[in-house]
Design a protein that fits this description.
It is a single chain. The protein is α/β, with parallel strands linked by helices. The protein is globular and about 65 Å long. The protein is built from 18 helices and 24 strands. Helix 2 (110-120) crosses helix 4 (137-147). Strands 1, 2, 3, 5, 13, 14 and 15 form a seven-stranded mixed β-sheet that branches. The model has no long low-confidence stretch (mean pLDDT 95).
Length: 504
């Protein structure tokens, strides 16, 4: 048995996943745990941080140790990632004071966003680094101040998910530079510190976590955390990072020109560059790997839309699965295999929960355009997958406009189980799409970073050698020609109906 093992745990929107790997980066144990997302009213999306974020970490950690039979003393380091752009206020005992407000799908702070746009005026985009949007955490803090003032006055720290988990594990309140950008303008990332002048109306500087590198050791597991997680007291814990950054690491997206397309609950993009660009339609910034920059972006729906179809239009297949039959999503894939590219003239705007990039519009609405009596639910579903594909293509247009070449496309997430969807994306882009040979996602990236931080590998270059793609999906260029025509309609639909959406 190898002398050292490395654990990675990732807390996502609907599921927490964990892995244990050995010094050769081979997975020796895997564990997952599903959880719910709360939507108590329109535009509100929440998690119970104590029950879900911390509870899942404890359960998954214990299960990994039990499954593998590896003594806790042999786990050298733990890497953590979690959904980003969220906010949970905690007291001095790191106890959440209210439900955690989730990322861009939660647009409750739209009034605060409007206020900030008016307050900063023409300087708003420069202050935030992009148009103020529902993924920004500063407006969420302001919402808490305006609507939950008692909570606000009791808050010791305003944390994001990975910071909360790391604090529960080690007692240290820290955030990696990659996620600190979500708190703009509250951190000065040139000095990697809290920007006391910018905190102003939002919070006290002392209420924010310290900035560190994602791969630094935040500290050791406390006695209390050891009792709850099953890990040995003193086990090294990384600062942690966002789930999408960790997922990119898990696929071998290490070099400029590489891009990760994450088909998860939402669709998220991480493109690596050798320079910082400035484009308000996306989220440029730094990356986990030193001296590397990123262009990040994210839609609000992907897997959540396929789940909506399962629950509302394919409920018969869901019932079959519940009775022990075929997986509903697998059956849904079979149902659309015969639907041609372009879905016989049906186009879907996938904005069922508003939209982040490239629209930055929390009030965008979903739409089925071109319906006729020949269309079936199969057409609706295939068209929805194509709509997400068109949205993905819009982000590739932005890269091209900024003269950023795409050298490698790595698709990850639960959506990669849908071969029809992968082919749709490849056909719309007109580019080859690859999947990773190791599909445990962000948790695997966390474990890789833990191995690097613990000294099992000396450089990112060494780590890159263990990353190999599983398959390549080449585009059908006849389908690409069909999609090029339909894209013109897709691209025009939002602009033509935006005002009506907002009126509605």
């Amino acid at each position: 048995m190898n002398s050292q093992f490395f654990m990675g745990i990732d807390v996502g929107t609907n599921e927490t996943k964990g892995v244990l790997i050995d010094a050769d980066c081979k997975v020796v144990a895997f564990q997952s745990k599903t959880h719910d997302i709360e939507n108590p009213r329109p535009n509100f999306f929440e998690h119970d941080a104590e029950k879900i974020w911390w509870g899942d970490v404890c359960a998954v950690s214990r299960a990994l140790l039990a499954k593998s039979g590896i003594p806790p003393a042999k786990v050298a380091c733990l890497g953590i990632s979690a959904l980003g752009c969220d906010c949970v206020p905690v007291d001095e005992n790191c106890t959440p004071l209210c439900k955690a407000i989730l990322y861009g799908i939660d647009s409750r702070s739209h009034k605060e966003m409007d206020y900030l746009n008016e307050y900063y005026g023409e300087d708003a985009e420069a202050v935030f680094g992009h148009p103020i949007c529902s993924s920004d955490i500063a407006p969420k803090i302001l919402w808490i101040k305006n609507n939950l003032f008692e909570v606000y006055t009791k808050t010791y720290k305003f944390l994001t998910a990975s910071s909360y988990i790391t604090a529960k594990l080690t007692g240290r309140y820290c955030i990696d530079k990659y996620l600190a950008e979500d708190f703009a303008p509250l951190y000065d990332l040139k000095t990697n510190s809290v920007d006391e002048k910018m905190c102003g109306m939002f919070c006290k500087p002392s209420q924010l976590a310290e900035v560190m590198k994602a791969t630094e050791i935040a500290g050791g597991v406390t006695a209390q955390a050891a009792a709850e997680t099953g890990l040995q007291e003193g086990t090294s814990v990384l600062v942690g990072t966002g789930d999408s950054g960790a997922e990119a690491i898990s696929t071998g997206v290490f070099q400029p020109g590489d891009i990760m397309v994450q088909l998860g609950s939402s669709c998220y993009f991480v493109y690596l560059a050798d320079k910082l660009i400035h484009d308000s339609r996306v989220w440029p910034g730094t990356f986990i790997i030193p001296d590397t920059y990123s262009v990040c972006a994210g839609t609000n729906t992907a897997g959540t839309l396929t789940k909506w179809f399962r629950d509302n239009l394919y409920f018969d297949l869901a019932a079959v699965q519940a009775a022990g039959g075929e997986n509903a999503f697998a059956a849904m894939v079979k149902d659309i295999e015969a639907i041609p590219a372009g879905s016989d003239g049906l186009i879907t705007l996938p904005y069922f929960a508003g939209e982040r990039t490239p629209l930055n519009d929390p009030f965008a609405k979903g739409m089925f355009f071109g319906l006729n009596l020949s269309h079936t639910r199969s057409h609706l579903y295939k068209s929805a997958l194509e709509g997400i594909g068109y949205s993905i293509a819009q982000h590739f247009d932005i890269l091209e406009e900024n003269h950023l070449p795409v050298k490698k496309i790595m698709a990850v997430g639960g959506g990669t189980q849908n071969r029809v969807w992968l082919q749709v994306v490849a056909d719309i882009l007109g580019k080859t799409v690859c999947t990773s040979s190791i599909t445990f996602g962000a948790s695997y990236g966390d474990a890789l970073m833990a191995a690097l931080a613990a000294g099992a590998y000396q450089s990112w270059g060494e780590l890159e050698k263990v990353m190999k793609p599983a398959m390549e999906i080449k585009p059908n260029m006849e389908n690409h020609a069909v999609y090029q025509k339909n894209r013109k309609i897709f691209d025009g639909l939002y602009a033509a109906t935006k005002d009506l959406m907002h009126t509605l």
